[in-house]
Amino acid sequence: MTTNPRPPRANPVRLYVTEAQHEFLKLIRIPIFAVSTIALPVLFYALFGLAFGGGGDSGPVGATTYLLATYGTFGVIGAALFGFGVSVATERGQGWMRLKHVSPMPPQAYFVAKVAMSTTVAAMIVAALFTLGASLGGVRMSPTQWISLGLVLIIGALPFSAMGLAFGYLVGPNSAPAMVNLMYLPMAFASGLFIPIHQLPTVVQDFAPALPPYHFAQLALGTVSASEGGSPAVHALVLLAFTAVFLTVAAWGFRRDEGRTYG
């Protein structure tokens, strides 16, 4: 009498790594994602950051340095919102979530892969902006400031990944790109990511602290000695609070969405 051999057990680490690799390749091969998410902040910095260089009122640092921090913030937020928000909404509509549930892959691997993708794309945007700023923008900072700014920008993708995840579970696949853009661009403007916050109308300056990108931008500006107010600890706590709220909303949407898909 023979017994069937047991199927080999899947390596959990390999499952996580494979899912992350496929998530990154999937998004990077979508032309609209690469253009809108990676190229757009670099193009904006080249047009507005370099054009303002030496002539704009950007406080204690040069305009190209100030805008390097704010356009880096803008790019990282976009990668998190579109990588999470739009892709999760689209995959829900396509029924991918059901397939993921019945596969042997741990459910957490799906979300870990998206976080890995979001931070990897954020690192690519930061590297492109840093190269442009140092070569054509004349940005000169100490090695500590370059490293601090890069780390703050990449780590800052996490709260906005949570925001994107919440949106991915709240909106349908057809409306997700429009809804994310409708929130993303006005929020970026009102937080001083396009124009230094002190140059915006007073009413916008007063409203900006209610927006999470404002606190992210102030943390980034703080690394280049250009923060426009507030304690770094307060900015970090506010971002943590927003992250908790967004994760709570996403968890509610996940439970509500189990067994359902949207067309």
TrEMBL record:
Q: Boundaries of each ABC transmembrane type-2 domain copy?
A: 32-257
Which of UniProt's keywords are assigned here?
Antibiotic resistance, Cell membrane, Membrane, Transmembrane, Transmembrane helix, Transport
Q: How does it sit in the membrane?
A: Multi-pass membrane protein
**Matches recorded under InterPro entries:** ABC2_TM (IPR013525), ABC2_TM_bact-type (IPR047817), ABC_2_transport (IPR000412), Nod_factor_ABC_transporter (IPR051784)
Regions that span the bilayer? 32-54, 66-90, 111-134, 146-171, 178-197, 233-254
Family matches, as PROSITE patterns: ABC_TM2
Family of this protein: Belongs to the ABC-2 integral membrane protein family.
Q: What is this protein called?
A: Transport permease protein
Source organism (scientific name): Ornithinimicrobium cryptoxanthini
